[in-house]
Write a structure and sequence with these properties.
single chain, 10-stranded antiparallel sheet, 9-stranded antiparallel sheet, binds alpha-D-glucopyranose
Length: 794
């Protein structure tokens, strides 16, 4: 048991989180996705399923409600002799179960309860490579008498765009049916919210068959909410539980649900397992009957669960760190990767945000999580984003993952993430062939990936203020600065720094490709950016965030609110645009004004009144989200910046304070899951200072992983090798990292005999001492032993 609190703990290896009470201070969930099909489930058993994404193709109905958390796919267990029923999860029946535990793991969740001397263990997972989720329910009779039970499943179909606000309308297009031979019910819908090929709305089919099936012969079924729940009843007291059997209704005239009932008789001490499956087969692509038979049985379920484990292992296990800090290890090794992949990149859905789209900058950043384990996925993501660029160089701010389409905006940073993430990709993989991949523009013919990046940079060059600072446009990384520069006069100093950094890595690529003219142009712009940001963007003690269209300063000591912003100060350092003294000063100001108990705030003081010349950041409740809260995504960059100014202890402290397991100790304040990052933590002016929110669906997970491994442990791939440059707390006696790099495994052991923060004394590789700084690229499929001794260089 690690990081125990009143509601749960981590397993000793950190790979599972065990919840011991259903009444966690917020829903504590799991988001499982295989890249196509996904489900969300909370500790109460509530949640929903989708295919593709949960906005355009929701399968089961639910409404965002973190207080009631009351929509789910539920399993009722009924004792036919004792005449009593309960549910296999806390919801919907909510009885005081004798035993209760929920284990959230990588790709599965397991709900164990005991009631009326019947133990139930419900294991839930999404198949590794099919649009199916599986529920394995094992019942054990701990009493001394034979028991006659039945199990009844229940889910409400939505089938398409969520929410289906006008559901009395949508209801009219669904048809349900039963396949008694397959112990299944099906649902189809002859309407999907897209236009047909002639642009006519409400004129195409939903091209799937949804199903729910069970491994046992059906006792009865129902596809009608009215007969199942009963008019004016709730799902905690459905009529179905007072009727001997389900009604057997289906067809076109009901409010569509899926409910299956099977009988389970148990002798004393006996156990029995029943498997349910739920999925959606695409017309012409998958066969419902085949999907059902592939998963809906004991043996099939065991095998499918093993496939899920193997599937996730590919993404999780090619890098392992061992440090003296369990929170660091648990998050870095397991949860941050899982969160970034299962939820952010694939699921695109969570309690606090259901997204139907792919954010241009967001998922590009997230895709860095693939770099060590499955770099090809990162490559595909880069190419995918390039395909969502216009020939003018700008990009969709986000686009729908089903059938595309999205907003074309004047956002000033989106497009630049393409060359930024490219650099990370090249350093990790050395795969320069990506530069020649031909990708079409949204409105133009194919060009090389290199040309895509170049057009992004050139587009940015076309949007500078007269004094040489990039324009803010519709906003920069901080979406909430939504009114600062829409007239194309306001400036973003942060974009200046970001572009400065990107040019630093892009110029060598331009030269490599013989583009001398462009490289020289970039050099000139880069130098001028450095001069201009340092001249106009320095406020005396820190860097300004922006100027508005009206020429007002943002993030200045002259302001009463929003005096200092985190972003331009972190990135002045990260980008290398600030020289030594200013870099130090900027970070000192970050420490002084922004570094609080739970991490670094995004700005200070929070805005208390809406400002129509700044944007919606000022309209948030003070202390929340981008308005003076800890915005975890950006707070991870403070860790990076602290390492660069030679403040390893502060870097580690900035990490520790936002590393979720550490909040187990004040969980009543924190409220959120301790095993995934929150998007934000309330800042000091909030009545709930320290409360975590917006968990799972946040870009902070990938970044926390990256800063921990690259900047605290300091293991950083370079084009020609691996750099080891730790910035660790001095009390650490050392740490180990095993990771893949190109085609070899590096077992790195760092020893810190003098208990210092930084500095390498010696490195030996496979017993030979290393000449130079970089651990070479072996590319030989072998395991290499790297011994690093910290200390003053000899
Ligand atoms: C949200 C957006 C992200 C943006 C951030 C800061 O997380 O998804 O793109 O950078 O907010 O505003």
């Amino acid at each position: 048991m690690k990081f125990q609190n009143a509601y749960g703990y981590f397993s000793d290896d950190g790979k599972e989180y065990v919840i011991t009470s259903p009444l966690t201070p917020r829903p504590w969930g799991n988001i499982m996705s295989n890249g196509d099909f996904g489900m969300m489930i909370s500790q109460t058993g509530s949640g929903y399923s989708w295919r593709g994404n949960a906005g355009q193709n929701r399968l089961t109905r639910s409404f965002q409600d973190l207080i009631k958390d009351n929509w789910g796919k539920y399993f009722y267990i009924r004792d036919l002799q004792r005449n009593i029923f309960w549910s296999a999860t806390y919801k919907p029946v909510m009885l005081p179960y004798q035993h209760f535990s929920v284990v959230h793991g990588i790709g599965y969740s397991k709900f164990t309860q005991e009631y009326q001397e019947i133990e139930s263990e419900l294991t839930v997972f999404v198949a590794a490579s099919d649009p199916v989720e599986v529920f394995r329910l094992k019942l054990t009779n701990h009493s001394t008498e034979a028991r006659e039970l039945d199990i009844t499943s229940y889910a409400e179909w939505l089938l398409g765009f969520a929410p289906d606000e006008h559901r009395e309308f949508h209801k009219l297009f669904i048809e349900t049916s039963a396949g008694v031979a397959q112990n299944a019910v099906y649902a189809r819908k002859c309407l999907w919210g897209f236009a047909d090929e002639k642009g006519r709305h409400n004129n195409i089919d939903w091209p799937y068959t949804a199903f729910m099936a069970v491994s046992e012969p059906l006792k009865s079924f129902d596809c009608d909410k009215e007969t199942f729940i009963g008019l004016y009843h709730n799902d905690d007291q459905p009529r179905a539980m007072i009727e001997p059997k389900l009604s057997g209704h289906s067809g076109r005239f009901t409010d569509a649900i899926a409910a299956l009932q099977v009988q389970v008789n148990l002798e004393p001490g006996q156990s029995k397992t029943v498997v349910f499956s739920l999925g959606a087969a695409e017309d012409g692509k998958e066969e419902v009957a085949e999907l059902i038979s592939r998963y809906t049985g004991l043996h099939q379920c065991e095998q499918a669960l093993q496939e899920v484990n193997a599937f996730w292992s590919r993404f999780i296990d090619s890098e392992k760190v061992e440090t003296p800090d369990d929170a660091f290890n648990f998050m870095t090794n397991t949860w941050l990767k899982y969160q970034a992949i299962s939820c952010r990149l694939w699921g695109k859905s969570a309690f606090y945000q259901v997204s139907a789209g792919i954010g241009f900058r967001d998922q590009l950043q997230d895709s860095q999580i693939f770099l060590i384990s499955e770099p090809d996925y990162a490559r595909k993501q880069l190419l995918l984003h390039a395909a969502h660029q216009f020939i003018e160089g700008d990009v969709f701010h986000w686009w729908f993952s089903i059938r595309g389409g999205g907003p074309r905006t004047n956002c000033s940073d989106d497009l630049l993430w393409l060359p930024f993430i490219l650099d990370a990709y090249l350093k990790e993989t050395g795969d320069f062939s990506i530069l020649d991949e031909a990708i079409p523009y949204l409105n133009g013919p194919a060009e090389s990936f290199y040309a895509h990046c170049k057009r992004a940079i050139e587009r940015s060059f076309s949007r500078f203020s007269p004094r040489g600072i990039p324009l803010m446009g519709d906003h920069d990384w901080n979406d909430g600065l939504s009114a600062v520069g829409t007239l194309m006069r306001g400036e973003s100093f942060w974009v200046g720094e970001f572009l400065y950094m990107i040019l630093g890595t892009f110029i060598p690529l331009a030269r490599m490709r013989g583009e001398t003219g462009f490289a020289e142009r970039c050099e000139i712009v880069r130098q001028s950016l450095k001069d201009a940001v340092n001249r106009h963007g320095w406020d005396g003690e820190w860097y300004l965030q922006a100027t508005t269209d009206d020429g007002l300063l943002l993030g200045s000591k002259e302001n009463s609110e929003g005096q200092i912003f985190l972003m331009p100060n972190n990135w002045a350092v990260i980008s290398g645009l600030a020289d030594g003294e200013r870099a130090q000063k900027a970070m000192n100001s970050v420490t002084k004004y922004l570094f609080k108990d739970y991490g670094t705030l995004l700005n200070f003081p929070a805005f208390t009144k809406p400002r129509s010349d700044i944007g919606y950041v000022t309209r948030y409740t003070p202390g929340l989200r981008e308005n003076g809260g800890v915005y975890t995504h950006a707070a991870t960059w403070s860790i990076w910046a602290y390492t660069l100014v030679g403040e390893p202890e502060l870097a580690y402290e900035a990490f520790r304070r936002i590393c979720p397991p550490n909040r187990s100790q004040d969980i009543e304040t924190y409220k959120a899951e301790p095993y995934v990052t929150p998007g934000n933590v309330d800042g000091p002016v909030s009545e709930y200072y320290g409360r975590g929110g917006w968990t799972w669906y946040t870009g902070s997970s990938q970044w926390l992983h990256r800063v921990a491994t690259h900047w605290i442990l300091g293991i950083r791939p370079q084009t020609d090798g691996l750099l080891v440059d730790p910035s660790i707390p001095a009390y650490w006696p050392g740490f180990k990292v095993t990771r893949k790099f190109r085609n070899a495994t590096y077992k790195i052991e760092v020893k810190n005999p003098q208990r210092i923060n930084r500095g390498i004394n010696s490195i030996t590789i496979d017993g030979k001492s290393l000449e130079g700084e970089l651990i070479p690229v072996f590319n030989d499929g072998q395991v290499h032993d790297v011994q690093v001794i910290m200390g003053k260089p000899e």
